[in-house]
Amino acid sequence: MGKMKILTNSSGTRSIEIKEEHLQTIEKYQLFRDLIDSNGYVDEQVLDKLKLNIRALLEAQAGLDKDLLDLCLDVVYHVNMKAYGLQQLVLLYINWKDRGNDNLGSTTRAIQGTPFN
Fold first, then answer.
1. Is 40 helix (H, G, I), strand (E, B) or coil?
2. Taking Cα atoms as reference points, which of 10, 13, 16, 11 lies closest to residue 81?
3. What angle do CA 71, 72, 78 make, to 5 degrees?
4. Dihedral, CA atoms, 7, 72, 97, 44, nearest 10 degrees?
5. Burial classification of residue 2, based on how many CB atoms lie within 10 Å of its CB (0-12 exposed, 13-18 middle, 19 or more buried)
6. φ, ψ at 8 (rounded to 5°)
7. Of 80, 65, 69, nearest in space to 17 by CA
8. What pLDDT score was predicted for residue 107?
9. Which residues pair with 4 in a beta bridge?
10. pLDDT of residue 29
11. What is the pLDDT, as a whole number, of residue 105?
């Protein structure tokens, strides 16, 4: 799959490059599990929660996982990352997982602008 881009604002003027390794790291640490509240919307509080969760992981491991550090530097703490960008990252991740499960009969499709609940 290689590299992808997510938009980080609704006007489409800012973006962040996402590598497949970033998505694999999200999967490895299950970073999106229980991240989004029952209302299904991604806001700045959700982004802050993700940052705190990652910080706790890094502290517990003394920052030894290069992939997790790369995810932080390249994506989560990127200057353009805001709630809109996180929503796009979640959508990209869901669709990436769906492509990986094509042979398992999974029919999940995430669409921009829909809540995650």
1. coil
2. 16
3. 105
4. -60
5. exposed
6. -115, 0
7. 80
8. 45
9. 18
10. 95
11. 46
Q: Tell me, what amino acid is at 71?
A: L
Tell me how many degrees the CA angle 39-41-45 measures, rounded to the nearest 5: 105
* Distance separating alpha carbons of residues 74 and 103, to the nearest angstrom: 31
Residue 12 burial class via C-beta count within 10 angstroms: exposed 0-12, middle 13-18, buried 19 and up: exposed
- Tokens 């970033």 belong to 22
pLDDT for 110: 53
Q: In the block, which residue shows the tokens 């979640």?
A: 90
| Close Cβ partners of 104 (under 8 Å, ≥ 6 residues apart) | none
Residue 11 CA to chain centroid, in angstroms?
20
The ranges of the chain with pLDDT < 70 are: 1, 63, 101-117
Quote the pLDDT of residue 117: 41
Structure tokens at 61: 């491991």
Burial of 59: CB neighbours in 10 Å, binned 0-12, 13-18, 19+:
exposed
